[in-house]
Design brief:
With about 190 residues, the chain is mostly helical. Helix content is about 80%, strand content about 0%. The protein is built from ten helices and no strands. It has helices at about 5-30, 30-40, 40-50, 50-70, 80-90, 95-105, 115-135, 145-160, 160-165, 170-190. Helix 5 runs parallel beside helix 8. The longest helix is centred in the N-terminal third of the chain and has 23 residues, at about 5-30.
């Protein structure tokens, strides 16, 4: 007789949900496909995670926590942080896809977990503000604005890889040159 392992089942559902939402967004994702991929009963998905919107919110929320743990904002080493951020997104392109789908689905409307998300980003903004107050980076921009600009510059290559290939070129040397340009842009954004 097979032994049930609820934690393993939750993990399979979660991984299948990440892939499904990254591929199809919230509206296009299907619980039955997630269940099939996870080899789990659809009812378990609802029992463990709630409805599709709640599952998406949990998937993106955990993805944000994973990114924050793997690549903390480091205004004292902008080049290193940009490298780590770009490497993370190259290895985990599903994260930016999830974020992009969230933007498409919600636009400027309030997010289900908006308060938690504000807390999450407040810590990152505080790190930038601290570096500005210590004179490490420019204070010409509001700390949240500066963080937003740095993230945009670093992330866009993963969000729109087709534009990167068309505008910059398809080869490894082209991608290396673009990374160097992104780091230079980040250096200039934070320069005093």
């Amino acid at each position: 007789m097979a032994v049930r392992d609820p934690e393993a089942t939750k993990a399979r559902i979660f991984e299948a949900a990440v892939a499904e939402f990254a591929r199809h967004g919230i509206a296009g994702a299907r619980i039955d496909r997630i269940a099939g991929e996870a080899k789990a009963n659809k009812q378990l998905i609802y029992a463990y995670f709630g409805n599709k919107q709640e599952l998406f919110t949990q998937v993106l929320g955990r993805s944000l926590v994973d990114l924050a743990a793997a690549v903390p904002v480091d205004p004292d080493d902008i080049e290193g942080w940009i490298d780590r951020l770009m490497d993370y997104h190259a290895a985990h392109p599903e994260f930016l896809r999830l974020l992009f789908w969230e933007g498409i689905e919600y636009g400027t409307a309030e997010l289900p977990d908006e308060a938690a998300r504000q807390d999450h980003y407040a810590r990152k903004v505080a790190a930038v503000r601290d570096a500005q107050e210590r004179g490490v980076i420019t204070d010409a921009f509001a700390p949240g604005d500066l963080l937003f600009l740095l993230i945009a510059v670093a992330n866009w290559t993963t969000v729109v890889p087709q534009m990167s290939r068309i505008l910059v070129g398809p080869d490894d040397t082209d991608r290396s040159r673009l990374r160097a340009s992104v780091k230079e842009a980040a250096r200039r954004l934070v320069a005093k």
